[in-house]
């Protein structure tokens, strides 16, 4: 008999009546929006806050991602930022009093070419300097840590080594959203579901309210955290973000007895896989290459990914695909998120996370809350503003590592 | 696997094509005449609409010709493909069914 | 001071020459016959000329069957000189019988006009798949619709086979030419030989 | 788990005369071992039919609660029977989580039930899998009566038809049904004749055991055919076990049928409680009786044919019909002597000592939904029909609208999709006559839409009449209204979730079906809620006041429709066929020299050529020494090559490259760098001017395709008025570079027509010639080592001959083949950049020491404008410099991070000062050295940096980019 999953708290959130005005309105009740509300209440004492979502809370990319939490980025700025997020994750379940199955099980990122080996060394050594844990593994060390990996030379892209981040983790995504929602709700934040923000009320360049499908709400501060649909909201507010929305697909197998206690990634042949607590293999791949809001992608992406998975982990051969789904992700030019002020006074945005927004939930919420509360970015997000696309000061993880994050 | 109507080769699988983002965003006549902000805007910002969008595609493993297309970013349906340098055809937003 | 140079052709090596034995052995015999071989050293010339331009007219004039006008068309015949349509302004002249003089003829025809003539005889090789089961091997390797009423004899297109770009040319009822670039020839040959195995056996539906 | 045979020692196989079993061959027995019991079955049996036939009803315990469970269904919708199967074949591994009713038995197969969690085999899968690509005019999904009628019609109209069915037999649920008649023939005859006609048509592909599992854009469908699992023997190599079909259909006929639903009531999960269609399926398809005393519980008319069969066999106890008013079918049953208990439900069940069904409590179902008087029946089997759910997965996957239909009591097609046609019970219709008629019409319409017109010929069968369907999904608990009273009302058998679990979710504040699904995990199991989802929605609708089935709606149907193996989807993309491996014409020469290879993109290239007894380092050192002091040769064929022709070619290149190309003289070459419009380096190479209007461009090996596309992009979309054409000649030419002080002596022997004197053949010039062996060649004085170098390019067909000729001509000078490792050192000594190694997509040409290649004169080139952005004006940009370890023998790894002295011991985090892009042992410098990207590097010459990852940290001095022969004195070779 399988172990039962942890029990949820008996009560999660209120379903409150929408008020006519709030100190802050957060658009988007995903992980980042809910976390922003939580940190506004907890860190800044701002509790007259509404989090408004056009659907059900946590129903966007929070519900669709493959939950990998890591900080092994290439550039100093990114590594610091994401390692701060990882530090926040460490202890978040206790802080939020919710067992969301946070599991620091280690991430192995395989290298298959000389170029990847070189980049891996660069990554590992710079991660360590920036305070993130990282190691380089030989193929034999990969095999010792994770025996299911095929390190034979007889495959087309043999494993030449790997980077390893022991603190990397997975968590139960929905429960993280619910944990933030529960605490925020308990501190007085109103979570308003099935309500769409249809426009913004402005006085000149300053926001004074939002229009919704349930009427107008007066507010002087709005935080936007609507990954996948950032451009649409920005356009309604009267500014543009350098984002393209694209499909990212993920898939699960049926449940298996534990075989894969870590997280395994290969950028070269585009696959990442972990085994979730219930026992299913959770896998993701590359984004489909064109602009898309359909939350569905081409099956050829999945076939290629499964071929890669079977090459790398032969015992996955006769696992079965149970469910494939897609999400709409924000692709920014440098594959680095945008968190900060916007051309409209009082509107702040959190977007551009690509396929990696889940890991940034705590830091994304924390820094957006700070920026809203102080009308200035926090030290952590000062390099991540929208202005960088006008100055050229990109945090170019995409080019530097060749990976979409 | 979208089926894309290459103006020269006919209907082919999407994997034969490469996507080239928004169409009708020409290279500035004189980049030096632009302000930094205007140049940066051209460099990094593209429309990202939900619905019909004019895009550039190239039939990379076929005739290697670039062409423009109006595609619905939700249904993924290609409403029209047309040559580079010709204006965007006027297509009503809700034209035809999902195919 | 120029010496008289030897004819170098004995020094040539085609991309699949070293696999000749394997290719021969890969033949599936019996009712579902299919065989594979390399047709080496064909003359291939890349032509760029825009329809309606002087270059197009001039080049078409020196070719026995002119230039093809649309996707899939081949001007000429597989066993002699066939000119394949690559794009509206790009063509590939292919002659399995060597035609060393042809490139100069075409260059002369092009003259100073806008266009291009390039010898590409080494750029690709020809893999010929033949026999009643050839169609079924292709059905396992290329997304192209190769139904006989759709992909008629002497039709040729660019497509992919084993995720690799190739030219595919149906030259006879049950004979197909697959033309990968030289460095991909082994990959394509290995893939096709692998796909041929099953036709040695009674078919499983 | 210890399997318990609830009933043993009895065969439940019905004599052939009564129910022959359309799917089995009674002339061929098969020995199998299931859950430790070795038993005899027939060819065509499934694991569950074999179990039931042999009196075994329990199929393992539930995943979390450990409750005994039995077979529920006869098809892919089965939630309980999940198996690990090992077949007795030479090359096979066990497979887990297979759905019992879908697994056909083979001799000596061993099957074990698992408890909701599978166990993967520990070894690789040696079997063979493949793909096909299909292009039907009409794809028919499902080969039941409607699908067969559609395919028949479409094929007769002349359309290309593919018709696929997931089961082993054709004919759907019709198979084995007694007394049915089509076109005046027994159904078996009609099915056999139809199948024969379809199979005889070359333009029809009719496949069984083939599941269409996903529908995608423009009618692209994915299907998996299980080709060999039902065979006892290992098939020969090359015959795939599973085949993944990629179907591009012009028109689609969905004839996917429907799945029966159970009803939620207390203790509704015991072995012996089945779907009525399951009981019928085992009886008609396999000749197996599900139990000895059977009751049926129904909301609709579909059970009455089964009731009649069971009554005739003497095993029917009663039919409990939820509907208070007896339908026509129910009245006929009553007239036939069947005990029909109307207006009643089953509200609880009892179990035997072994946990199987022993009895049912039947309660009056009052008009207000409350329970009335109860009666108890002792039965070992209960067949339930809670209504039918059309299998609309593919419609929904293709964004087809789905709505709740009160009459059908199921989610149905809301609006037909373009290019879709629907036939049979997927439409909600349940009569054979209607299925055949709309099948034929769908086939005609689909074929017509592809240009194949025909008048539909509808096969004729009894239309039948169906009574209304009662709207019941959950029976109230007899124990009151507390949550605890619903602890054993199972909603999702696979996930072991009950009404109590749903109540907990709503109690916590959840009101969305997605939240409740995620909170409880309902419908997330293997079966994806095929039998449970509608009931879960029904339960929610009862709990959440004012929410109708429509309000709640169904969750999204996601592919795949049923579980599909990873390896089947990998197909032949395994091992060497996973990806193309590109080889140059000289590859076998490198092999003959025992080269160690490395991958450069898709290319395999010689890394170094170790001689007997040499270490890697020794080999590389020897190769570099040869190129510096004698002469070396390298295969450079992989470089991208593009011919550019046209009067405006020079102007075009002038816009593309950062430096000027207008004034390049014919007969000479020039090095150029390409940047993106963002000003960042992405490719480089030497371009030769062959004629006023012809250029020969070199690109990096990995960049060839990208550069060609870049040129075409700018030409076609912006500058088509410029006369320039681009033709890839990367593979037309093979190239050997001969490099070293003695290079001239080697090339002189190859091409006696060419005057190689340095003043006659200058650096960056080239000559077209014919080699003495007759091979036409172009010889260019291009150097990537700083030594005198000649690159000889010949048609690829002569590549191997060229390699051999160079080796032979150089033998007297001990010419040494060198690989990429040596080349990387030689060029690094000279400060030559490798794009992609010394650059990472964030660097300008200026950053990597190539300010000289960025024109200050040109009005514009791609990327120029970006250099005015603030980021390019920083003085701490990473710049490429050389570094020398203080200890000349120290080595660090490529990629090593660098910090300044003050950060060396500072607490972490500290920022990097840069990183090493390559670090080498240089024979020429007699020390180690490397290149590094360092913040503000060019202004920090002489400063110290540290690689802190080493113990002790390695100290370096920053030095100018060019470490060897900065004056370039060696370019012309020995004097």
Automatic annotation (TrEMBL), chain A:
Keyword presence, Oxidoreductase: yes
Key words, A-Z: Cytoplasm, FAD, Flavoprotein, FMN, Nucleotide-binding, Oxidoreductase
Name the record gives this protein: Sarcosine oxidase subunit beta
Annotated TM spans: none
Enzyme class: oxidoreductase
Domain Rhodanese, residue spans: 24-68
Cofactors that this protein relies on: FAD; FMN
InterPro entries found in the cross-reference section: FAD-dep_OxRdtase (IPR006076), FAD/NAD-bd_sf (IPR036188), Rhodanese-like_dom (IPR001763), SoxB (IPR006278)
Keyword Flavoprotein among record annotations: yes
Compartments where located: Cytoplasm
Cited SUPFAM superfamilies: FAD-linked reductases, C-terminal domain (SSF54373), FAD/NAD(P)-binding domain (SSF51905)
Superkingdom in the source lineage: Bacteria
GO cellular component term of the entry, any: cytoplasm
Chemical reaction(s) catalysed: sarcosine + O2 + H2O = formaldehyde + glycine + H2O2; sarcosine + (6S)-5,6,7,8-tetrahydrofolate + O2 = (6R)-5,10-methylene-5,6,7,8-tetrahydrofolate + glycine + H2O2
From TrEMBL, chain B:
Molecular function (Gene Ontology), one example: sarcosine oxidase activity
Gene3D superfamilies: Folate-binding superfamily
Gene Ontology BP annotations: tetrahydrofolate metabolic process
Transmembrane segments: none
A Pfam family matched in the record: SoxD
NCBIfam families, sorted: soxD (TIGR01374)
Protein name: Sarcosine oxidase subunit delta
Organism of origin: Enteractinococcus coprophilus
From TrEMBL, chain C:
Species for this entry: Enteractinococcus coprophilus
Pfam families named among the record's database cross-references: SoxG
Protein's name according to its UniProt entry: Sarcosine oxidase subunit gamma
InterPro entries: SoxG, TrmE/GcvT-like
Superkingdom of origin organism: Bacteria
From TrEMBL, chain D:
Domain SoxA A3: 488-571
A Pfam family per the record: SO_alpha_A3
Domain of life: Bacteria
Domain GCVT N-terminal residue range list: 588-856
Signal peptide from the UniProt entry: none
Keyword tags: Oxidoreductase
Membrane-crossing segments per the record: none
GO molecular function: oxidoreductase activity
InterPro entries reported in the protein's UniProt record: 2Fe-2S-bd_N, FAD/NAD-bd_sf, GcvT/YgfZ/DmdA, GcvT/YgfZ_C, GCVT_N, SoxA_A3, TrmE/GcvT-like
Family classification: Belongs to the GcvT family.
Protein name (record): Sarcosine oxidase subunit alpha
UniProt organism field: Enteractinococcus coprophilus
């Amino acid at each position: 008999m399988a172990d039962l999953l942890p029990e949820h708290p008996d009560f999660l959130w209120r379903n409150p009546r929408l008020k006519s005005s709030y100190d802050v309105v957060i658009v988007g009740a995903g992980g980042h929006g809910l976390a922003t509300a939580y940190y506004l209440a907890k860190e800044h004492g701002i509790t007259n806050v509404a989090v408004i979502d056009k659907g059900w809370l946590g129903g966007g990319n929070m519900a669709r991602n493959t939950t990998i939490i890591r900080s092994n980025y290439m550039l100093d700025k990114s590594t610091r930022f994401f390692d701060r997020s990882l530090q926040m994750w460490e202890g978040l379940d206790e802080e939020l009093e919710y067992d969301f199955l946070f599991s620091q099980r280690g991430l192995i990122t395989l290298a298959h070419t000389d170029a990847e080996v070189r980049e891996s060394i660069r990554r590992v050594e710079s991660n360590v300097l920036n305070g993130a844990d990282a190691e380089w593994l030989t193929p034999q060390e990969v095999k010792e840590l994770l025996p299911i990996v095929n390190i034979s030379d007889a495959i087309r892209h043999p494993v030449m080594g790997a980077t390893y981040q022991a603190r990397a983790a997975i968590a139960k995504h929905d429960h993280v959203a619910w944990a933030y929602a529960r605490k925020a709700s308990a501190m007085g934040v109103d979570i308003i579901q099935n309500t769409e923000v249809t426009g913004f009320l402005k006085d000149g360049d300053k926001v004074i309210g939002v229009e919704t499908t349930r009427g107008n709400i007066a507010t002087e501060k709005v935080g936007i955290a609507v990954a996948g649909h950032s451009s649409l909201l920005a356009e309604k507010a009267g500014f543009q973000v350098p984002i393209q929305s694209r499909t990212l697909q993920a898939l699960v197998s049926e449940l298996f007895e534990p075989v894969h206690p870590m997280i395994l990634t290969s950028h070269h042949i585009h696959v990442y896989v972990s085994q979730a607590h219930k026992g299913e293999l959770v896998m993701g791949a590359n984004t489909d290459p064109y602009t898309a809001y359909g939350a569905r992608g081409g099956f050829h992406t999945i076939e290629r990914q499964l071929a890669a998975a079977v090459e790398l982990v032969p015992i996955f051969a006769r696992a079965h695909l149970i469910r494939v789904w897609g999400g709409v992700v924000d692709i920014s030019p440098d594959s680095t998120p945008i968190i900060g002020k916007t051309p409209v006074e009082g509107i702040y945005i959190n977007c551009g996370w690509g396929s990696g927004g889940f890991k940034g939930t705590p830091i994304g919420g924390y820094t957006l809350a700070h920026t809203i509360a102080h009308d200035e970015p926090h030290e952590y997000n000062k390099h991540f503003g929208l202005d960088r696309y006008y100055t050229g000061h990109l945090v170019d993880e995409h080019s530097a590592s060749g990976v979409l994050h | 696997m979208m089926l894309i109507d290459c103006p020269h080769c006919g209907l082919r699988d999407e994997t034969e094509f490469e996507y080239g983002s928004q169409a009708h965003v020409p290279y500035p006549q004189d980049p030096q005449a632009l302000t930094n902000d205007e140049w940066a805007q051209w460099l990094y910002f593209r429309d990202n609409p939900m619905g019909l969008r004019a895009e550039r595609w190239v039939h990379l493993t076929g005739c290697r010709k670039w062409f423009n297309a109006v595609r619905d970013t939700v249904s993924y349906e290609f409403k029209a493909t047309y040559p580079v340098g010709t204006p965007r055809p006027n297509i009503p937003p809700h034209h035809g069914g999902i195919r | 001071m120029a010496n008289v140079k030897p004819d170098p052709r004995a020094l040539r090596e085609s991309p699949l020459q070293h696999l000749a034995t394997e290719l021969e052995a890969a033949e599936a015999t019996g009712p579902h016959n299919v065989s594979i071989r390399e047709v080496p050293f064909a003359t291939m010339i890349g032509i760029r000329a825009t329809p309606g331009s002087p270059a197009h007219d001039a080049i078409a004039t020196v070719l026995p069957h002119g230039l093809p006008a649309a996707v899939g068309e081949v001007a000429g015949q597989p066993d002699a000189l066939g000119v394949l349509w690559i794009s509206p302004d790009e063509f590939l002249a292919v002659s399995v019988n060597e035609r060393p003089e042809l490139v100069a003829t075409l260059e002369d025809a092009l003259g100073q006009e806008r266009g291009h003539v390039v010898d590409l005889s080494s750029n690709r090789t020809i893999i010929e798949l033949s026999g009643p089961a050839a169609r079924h091997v292709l059905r396992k390797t290329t997304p192209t619709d190769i139904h006989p009423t759709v992909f008629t004899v002497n039709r040729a297109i660019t497509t992919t086979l084993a995720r690799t770009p190739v030219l595919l040319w149906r030259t006879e009822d049950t004979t197909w030419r697959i033309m990968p670039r030289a460095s991909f020839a082994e990959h394509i040959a290995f893939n096709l030989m692998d796909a041929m195995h099953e036709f040695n056996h009674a078919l499983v539906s | 788990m210890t399997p318990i045979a609830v009933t043993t020692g009895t065969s439940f196989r019905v004599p052939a005369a009564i129910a022959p079993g359309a799917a089995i061959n009674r002339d061929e027995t098969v020995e199998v071992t299931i859950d430790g019991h070795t038993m005899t079955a027939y060819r065509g049996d499934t694991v569950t039919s074999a179990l039931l036939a042999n009196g075994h009803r329990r199929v393992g315990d539930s995943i979390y609660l450990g409750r005994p469970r039995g077979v529920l269904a006869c098809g892919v919708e089965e939630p309980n029977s999940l198996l690990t199967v090992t077949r007795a074949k030479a090359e096979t591994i066990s497979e887990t989580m297979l759905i019992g009713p879908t697994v056909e038995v083979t001799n000596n197969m061993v099957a074990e039930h698992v408890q909701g969690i599978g166990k993967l085999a520990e070894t690789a899968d040696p079997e063979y899998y493949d793909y096909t690509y299909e292009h039907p005019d009409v794809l028919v999904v499902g080969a039941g009566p409607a699908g067969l009628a559609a395919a028949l019609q479409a094929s007769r109209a002349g359309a290309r038809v593919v018709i696929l069915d997931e089961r082993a037999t054709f004919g759907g649920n019709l198979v084995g049904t007694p007394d049915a008649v089509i076109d005046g023939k027994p159904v078996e005859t009609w099915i056999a004749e139809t199948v024969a006609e379809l199979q005889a048509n070359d333009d029809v592909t009719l496949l069984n055991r083939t599941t269409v599992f996903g529908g995608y854009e423009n009618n692209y469908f994915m299907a998996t055919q299980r080709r060999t699992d039902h065979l006892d023997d290992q098939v020969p190599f090359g015959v795939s076990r599973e085949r993944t079909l990629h179907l591009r259909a012009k028109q689609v006929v969905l004839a996917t049928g429907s799945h029966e639903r159970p009803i939620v009531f207390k203790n509704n999960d015991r072995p012996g409680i089945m779907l009525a269609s399951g009981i019928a399926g085992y009886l008609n398809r396999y000749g197996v009786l599900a139990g000895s005393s059977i009751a049926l519980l129904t909301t609709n008319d579909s059970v009455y044919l089964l009731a009649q069969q069971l009554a005739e066999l003497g095993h029917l106890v009663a039919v409990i019909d939820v509907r208070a008013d007896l339908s026509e079918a129910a009245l006929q049953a009553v007239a036939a002597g069947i005990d029909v208990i109307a207006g009643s439900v089953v509200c609880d069940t009892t179990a035997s000592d072994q946990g199987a069904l022993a009895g049912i409590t039947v309660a009056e179902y009052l008009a207000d939904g409350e329970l009335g008087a109860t009666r108890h029946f002792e039965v070992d089997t209960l067949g339930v029909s809670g209504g039918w759910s059309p299998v609309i997965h593919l419609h929904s996957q293709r964004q087809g609208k789905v709505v709740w239909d009160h009459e059908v009591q199921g989610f149905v097609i809301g609006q037909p999709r373009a290019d879709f046609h629907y036939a049979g019970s997927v439409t909600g219709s349940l009569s054979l006559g209607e299925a055949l008629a709309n099948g034929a019409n769908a086939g005609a319409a689909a074929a017509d839409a592809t240009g194949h017109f025909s008048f539909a010929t509808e096969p004729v069968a009894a239309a039948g009449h169906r009574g209304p369907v009662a709207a019941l999904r959950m029976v109230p608990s007899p124990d009151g209204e507390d949550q605890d009273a619903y602890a054993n009302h199972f909603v999702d058998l696979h996930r072991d979730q009950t009404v109590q679990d749903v109540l907990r979710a709503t109690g916590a504040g959840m009101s969305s079906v997605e939240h409740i699904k995620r909170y409880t995990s309902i419908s997330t199991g293997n079966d994806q809620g095929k039998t449970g989802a509608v009931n879960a929605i029904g339960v929610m609708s009862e709990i959440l006041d004012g929410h109708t089935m429509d309000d709640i709606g169904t969750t999204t149907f996601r592919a795949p429709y049923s579980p599909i193996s990873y390896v089947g989807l990998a197909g032949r993309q395994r091992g060497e066929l996973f990806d193309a491996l590109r080889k140059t014409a000289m590859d076998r020469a490198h092999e003959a020299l025992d080269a160690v290879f490395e991958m450069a993109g898709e290319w395999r290239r010689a890394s170094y050529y170790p001689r007997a007894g040499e270490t890697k380092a020794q080999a590389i050192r020897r190769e570099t020494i040869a190129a510096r002091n004698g002469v070396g040769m390298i295969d450079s064929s992989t470089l991208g090559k593009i011919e550019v022709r046209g009067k405006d070619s020079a102007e075009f290149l002038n816009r593309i490259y950062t430096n000027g190309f207008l004034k390049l003289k014919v007969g000479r070459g020039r090095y150029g760098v390409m940047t993106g419009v963002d000003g960042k380096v992405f490719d480089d190479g030497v371009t030769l001017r062959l004629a006023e209007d012809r250029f020969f461009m070199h690109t990096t090996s990995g960049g060839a395709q990208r550069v060609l596309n870049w040129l075409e992009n700018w030409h076609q979309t912006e500058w088509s008025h410029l006369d320039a054409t681009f033709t890839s000649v990367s593979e037309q030419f093979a190239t050997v570079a001969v490099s070293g002080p003695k290079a001239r002596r080697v090339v002189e022997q190859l091409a006696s027509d060419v005057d190689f004197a340095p003043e006659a053949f200058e650096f960056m010039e080239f000559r077209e010639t014919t080699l003495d062996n007759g091979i036409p060649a172009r010889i260019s004085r291009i150097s990537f080592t700083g030594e005198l170098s000649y690159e000889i390019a010949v048609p690829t067909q002569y590549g191997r001959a060229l390699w051999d000729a160079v080796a032979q001509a150089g033998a007297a000078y001990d010419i040494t083949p060198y690989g990429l490792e040596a080349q990387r050192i030689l060029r690094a000594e000279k400060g030559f950049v490798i794009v992609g190694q010394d650059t990472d997509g964030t660097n300008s040409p200026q950053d990597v020491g190539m300010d000289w290649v960025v024109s200050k004169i040109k009005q514009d080139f791609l990327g120029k404008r970006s250099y005015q952005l603030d980021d390019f004006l920083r003085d701490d940009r990473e710049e490429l410099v050389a570094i020398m370890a203080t200890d000349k023998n120290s080595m660090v790894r490529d990629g090593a991070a660098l910090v300044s002295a003050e950060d060396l011991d500072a607490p972490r985090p500290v920022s990097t000062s840069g990183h090493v892009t390559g670090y080498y042992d240089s024979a020429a410098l007699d020390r180690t050295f490397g290149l590094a990207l360092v913040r503000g590097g060019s202004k920090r010459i002489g400063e110290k940096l540290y690689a802190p990852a080493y113990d002790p940290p390695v100290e370096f001095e920053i030095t100018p980019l060019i470490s060897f022969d900065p004056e370039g004195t060696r370019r012309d070779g020995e004097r």
